[in-house]
Amino acid sequence: MKTSSRLCSKNDFQRYRKKEMNRKQEKPIVALIYDFDGTLAPGNMQEYSFISAVGRNKDEFWGETHEMARHQDADGVLIYMLLMLEEAKRKGIKLTKRKLKTFGKDITFFNGVETWFERINKIGEKEGVTVEHYINSSGLLEIMEGTSISKEFKAIFASSFYYDEDGCAIWPASAVNYTNKTQFLFKINKGILNIHDSEKINASVPEEEKRIAFSNMIYFGDGETDVPCMKLTRQLGGTSIAVYNSSEASRNVARRLYEQHRVSFICPADYTEGSLVEEIVTKLIRKIKADDALSSLR
Fold it and tell me: What are the angstrom distances between the C-alpha of 257 and each of 208, 231, 254, 266?
């Protein structure tokens, strides 16, 4: 009796096994994606030295930013960047990339952040995965590039300035707000590490050819401005974590995000060895590795 099924030849089977063995030798990639302000460092990065350098205090600076945005019905990120340019010009400060990077040197981090990346990378190596770290922030790229942890990131997606021929900031080159932050999750998914590309990000790519699956993403945030990224990450199979500082208001925000199903976990912004967030991430890495091993058996 004839059968419609096609029997696999010995050569076909050997090619299949070789392909599977090669795939199994490739470590799954786990992407840890962080907001910056309030997630890795307390407060906003402009508050550490820039605002005082232009002779303002943080309440004045942010109060004027909010009022200007309300009055002009404008994007708050664009307005704070405009105000930085105006205040620097008023004080005679040239906002070059080098100058902005010096403001990053004064930033202090939550406990354990500066040793976090090496520890998590080692955990990933032990569990058989490659861990990559990314920043997805409305803060300034140039300031973050001046911090002690900038070298830890595969890519930093953030707001940045456009510079004239003298190297001085004159205009926003990129303004990242709470909704357009989601685009960078898709860039990470496809392995695109720049902001300007608008062709590859819209190209159709089979799921199995995308560099990092959403299920392999862990997103860290601290507040309402992270909600779109938190929600999208969860909807597409990844995990979102809300961290909080020692204040009751911060804990209440994290609790509300959990109750609204925006995040899977909430924990203190304590990144020291043996902390709750380290325990959660370690177990998520093991789960991702196990899921990858199971998928290879299908």
Answer: 31, 10, 5, 8
pLDDT in tens, 70-114: 999 999 999 999 999 999 999 999 999 999 999 999 999 999 999
Strands 130-140 and 29-34: parallel
pTM of the predicted model as reported, rounded to 2 decimal places = 0.90
Partnered with residue 125 across adjacent β-strands are none
Alpha-carbon distance values, 30 to 58, 196, 214, 228, 284 (Å) = 36, 24, 9, 20, 9
Closest of 45, 54, 78 to residue 172, by C-alpha: 78
Residue 26 CA: distances (Å) to CA of 29, 211, 286: 9, 12, 16
Instruction: Give the integer Cα–Cα distance in Å for 102 and 95.
Output: 11
5 pLDDT band, cuts 50/70/90, is: very low
CA dihedral angle for residue 54, residue 60, residue 66, residue 71, rounded to 10 degrees = -90
The whole-number pLDDT of residue 8 equals 52
DSSP 98-121: HHHHHHHTT---STTHHHHHHHHH
Within 8 A by CB and 6+ apart from 49, the residues are 102, 103, 106
Q: How confident is the model at residue 14 (pLDDT cuts 50, 70, 90)?
A: low
